[in-house]
Design a protein that fits this description.
The complex is a heterodimer of chains A (114) and B (113).
Chain A lengths: L4 E3 L2 E4 L5 E6 L6 E7 L6 E7 L2 E5 L7 E4 L6 E5 L8 E8 L8 E2 L3 E5 L1
Parallel strand pairs in A: 2-11
Antiparallel strand pairs in A: 1-3, 3-8, 4-5, 4-9, 5-6, 7-8, 9-10, 9-11
Chain B lengths: L2 E4 L4 E4 L4 E3 L1 E4 L5 E7 L6 E6 L5 E4 L2 E4 L9 E3 L8 E8 L7 E3 L3 E6 L1
Parallel strand pairs in B: 2-12
Antiparallel strand pairs in B: 1-4, 3-9, 5-6, 5-10, 7-8, 8-9, 10-11, 10-12
The chains are: A mainly beta (114), B mainly beta (113).
């Protein structure tokens, strides 16, 4: 399967711990996005990369959040010192530069902070 | 800033009923408009899109027309099936190649036999 894959699919952690999510985009896609989705809400933009460059970060992305995309391939999203309010589904999507708004999403990584 | 407002769900319909899910938007310039669908246990996927005023996007029997004068992009289907049960998200992408897609809150559709 050559779609967007995310790992892990589910993560349960205690408050204060660090967690890291990985996203492998569709191989030829040069843009990669992270979104967060809470119950009953639509996805909220967190950050995006064009190749290895992180071009924008949302104000939702506090200093405890960091994202990387080394070599313009896979990406990681790390949350340090997790809080209960971080509990959400973290979605990764990728796209081609030329295709406006056509995002290809993974199935998401669900984070539960106890 | 950009925003999308869509009707709250859940929407429950009988099979073969007519579906409308309302969506309105606020944006500067001329955004592209989208409907994404999320089936149970799956990731979001693009259902249809329209990139300029009066364009009609269509796919799998669903249609939506980009109405600039009413800033709307309502989703319609003439005859829904049980397999259409999903959450539907209206979204916009601000023009200029920026590609930061803004989503609505989603509308859950349940179709009963």
């Amino acid at each position: 399967d050559t779609g967007v894959s995310q790992d892990p699919r589910h993560k349960i952690t205690k408050r204060g711990q660090n967690v890291t999510f990985r996203c492998d985009p569709i191989s030829e896609h040069n843009r990669l996005y992270w979104y967060r989705q809470t119950l009953g809400q639509g996805p909220e933009f967190l950050t995006y990369f064009q190749n290895e460059a992180q071009l924008e970060k949302s104000r939702l992305l506090s200093d405890r959040f960091s994202a990387e995309r080394p070599k313009g391939s896979f990406s990681t999203l790390e949350i340090q010192r997790t809080e209960q309010g971080d509990s959400a589904m973290y979605l990764c999507a990728s796209s081609l530069l030329a295709t406006t708004g056509e995002l290809f999403f993974g199935e998401g990584s669900r984070l539960t902070v106890l | 800033g950009n925003s999308v407002t869509q009707m709250e769900g859940p929407v429950t319909l009988s099979e073969e009923a007519f579906l409308t899910i309302n969506c309105t938007y606020t944006a500067t310039g001329y955004p592209s408009l989208f409907w994404y669908v999320q089936y149970p246990g799956e990731g979001l996927q693009l259902l249809l899109k329209a990139t300029k005023a009066d364009d009609k996007g269509s796919n799998k029997g669903f249609e939506a027309t980009y109405r600039k004068e009413t800033t709307s992009f309502h989703l319609e289907k003439g005859s829904v099936q049980v397999s259409d049960s999903a959450v539907y998200f209206c979204a916009l992408d601000q023009s200029g190649g920026y590609q930061k897609v803004t989503f609505g809150t989603g509308t859950k559709l349940q179709v009963i036999p």
